[in-house]
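Dear colleagues,

As part of the handover before I leave the project, I'm documenting each prediction I ran so the next person doesn't have to rerun anything. This entry is a single chain, and its sequence is reproduced below.
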Amino acid sequence: MADRRDDYVRATRYYRRALAIVQEMNDRQLEGVLPGDVGNAYYGLDVYDKAIRYYRLALNVARELSDRHNEANWIGNLGMVYRATGQYRRAKKCYRQALALARQLQQRSAEGLHLANLAQIWRDLGQPGRGLPMLQQVLGIARELGERQRESARLNVLGQMYVEVGDYAAAIEHADQALDLSLTLRTPHMQVSALTTLGSAYFLVNDFKSAHDAYTEGAAIAATSGDKHGESLCLGGLGNLALYTDRFEEALRPFARALAYAESVGDERNAVGWLNNLGRTYADWAAQLKQGNQADQAWHTAQRYLRQALLRARQLAAPAIESDVLLNLGRLYQTRPKRVKRAGQCFAGAIQKLEAVRQTLNEDLHRAGLMHRGEYPYVALTKLCDRAIVK
């Protein structure tokens, strides 16, 4: 990760020097491309304000030159930055503009890219069902153009989205197709992604053996191919399996390894998810032990992990994840008579966060390692909250 960041720093210096030379030469054609390259480098460094500045500069030149291809490109890149900074309304506006231009220019591949980005926005907002029709169009475009790797990737993302809307049969069907195609194309990272999606879908229909087989195979392929990210997701899946079958000590190691990887690459969203799952595991273990020094130690460890997860979820401005952490904190506090009032506050906060994301109850809580299998719908949360307040 450090090497990659160094590459972006060097790229930023190079492109800025090149841009200064091009501006001296008054070469508007090159001047329209290089600022975008500088923007790409800053985007890679997560320096979003400067990325926006250079993308806008490139966009202005593209419009001046009536270069509609690059105009669409830089508008789309602005959408990426806005999405990365949680400015979803602006991101959607950019993607829609870029999509309209791609269609006018009859650039089918670019059209698919911008449609996929729009679908991802709806996933980010916790409404994957609204993005499904868009991604189905994207899959059709990939097949039309013979883009087999993109077809495999789109099939897998469709599988993930079907998991999120609760259509597990469709999720398994699409992930299976993605896996078959990735085997044909000999793309290990896509195989791992498809197996991870299959593991999630099988888990959510209580087919734990198939889920275990998928995660285990995915982890082995990822380890062999050096796919650390894929390996961490598969390990997290195995941790979830152990957690939900009450094998708490067995769940701790894969969750800890997944957290360590997420921390090492700055993947804050998944890091919060694994912290939350570690807290949930220690909480359930404490409840199983009931009393004694080991139970007390597990309880306090759970509280520490969950408090960390809550703080970082709030910093992420991720209400769906924050709701799940609050739920787990409430369940933890409910086991201690002196903390029942605080449990009620946590449950009420979880409901509030769910409502903030959307009014429906199909909350996307399985992402980033959160796998609650719908066991806490809105009505159940309300009852928990009322019970805690009454006590």
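Residues 43 and 51 are 5 Å apart (CA to CA). The chain has a mean pLDDT of 84.

All the best with the project,
I.
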